[in-house]
Amino acid sequence: MANRLSHAALCLLAGLLVDLGAYGFAGAAHAASASEGQARSADAKVVASIETPADSTSARTAMRKPAAASARGPYYVDFRARTAASWGHAFVWYGKTSERAVEVAGLTPAGDVDRYILGYITWVPSETGASYGDLDPEYLTAHYKVYLSEADAKRVFAYIKHLKESSPVWSAEISNCTSFIGDIAEFMGLKTPSRWTRPENYVRELKALNNGRQVVRLSE
Q1: pTM for the full model?
Q2: N or C, which end of the chain is more exposed by having fewer CB within 10 Å?
Q3: What angle do CA 91, 97, 98 make, to 5 degrees?
Q4: Rounded to whole angstroms, how far apart are CA atoms 194 and 111?
Q5: Sites in the chain below the pLDDT cut of 50
Q6: Which residues of 8-23 are buried (b: 16+ CB within 10 A; e: fewer)?
């Protein structure tokens, strides 16, 4: 029985290596190496350009219609997807609309490519802060930004903090990046796609399922 299980695990690992090769195994190694060189902190804020082309248009419109802009809410959660060596990665930016400093939350395997590969077979230790590429606009493939009132933002941000602190492991099949941001979306009352959807498609489907609504109000 043990021999059969070992053989099955080796087959699964071999198949995964082939898949990684198709999407650029060398790129995964480079990304993992770069991420190891970056300091990560669950509570640290990072400064990034939070303006996308769509946001620029909205900003110009807001200058003409200040009342409409203020109705959106002073805080936001931005569900985002970026390129990666294999399936991509999904995560959130969140913060105050008037500030460039953003906080980042996402679920990734801690360490190098070996941990990522092992995560297709078993649970591996995770990290929940900013990972390599999360702050680079050139890697962005999709995003869906929603706005919150101050009171609702406090509740959502507290939940994100709790989720980061209570997610010690990562699994490609069970507890992955899309399930992580999906938990946040569900807490906010949004409809969510399947957790096994590719990150880029997940974020796009999340927006479509919620008809692109820009303002979220939590129920009492």
Answers
A1: 0.72
A2: C
A3: 140
A4: 27
A5: 1-44, 49, 52-54, 56-70
A6: eeeeeeeebeeebeee
